[in-house]
Design goal:
Helix content: 25-40%
Structural class: alpha+beta
Order of helices and strands: HEEEEHEH
CATH topology: TATA-Binding Protein
Shape: globular
Number of strands: 5
CATH class: Alpha Beta
Number of domains: 1
Radius of gyration: 15 Å
């Protein structure tokens, strides 16, 4: 399996695992969005808790120029560290939710 296919599988596994454990009520569902053509991957919550509308991303990843961009992580899980444990070098992980200035201090790729 080539590098990009491995990265895609790692991302899908992480999102799928969170989708399975995240939903606590039948009225809020986890939606997995996998855009293989453009390499966008997201977990979103959709539904209602009583009279309150629940809708929004939980995690969002992109693969850009061979690197995994963590665009959003609304969990307490350090998905960047998890990717490292799976074998992704820190030079292939970008914390996209930080400004390019701040990324230089994270130990991960700047872009």
């Amino acid at each position: 399996m080539d590098k990009l296919e491995r990265y895609r599988q790692f991302i899908k596994d992480i999102l799928t695992e969170h989708a399975q454990i995240a939903t606590t009520r039948d009225t809020v569902t986890s939606e997995l969005i996998f855009d293989h053509e453009h390499d966008h991957y997201q977990l979103t919550y959709v539904g209602w808790q009583g009279h309150k509308r629940i809708f929004g991303p939980v995690m969002h990843f992109d693969i850009i120029d061979g690197k995994i961009w963590i665009q959003y992580n609304g969990t307490e899980d350090s998905v960047a560290q998890r990717l490292v444990h799976l074998g992704v070098p820190t030079s292939d992980i970008v914390l996209g939710f930080h400004s390019s200035f701040k990324r230089q201090f994270t130990g991960y790729a700047v872009g």
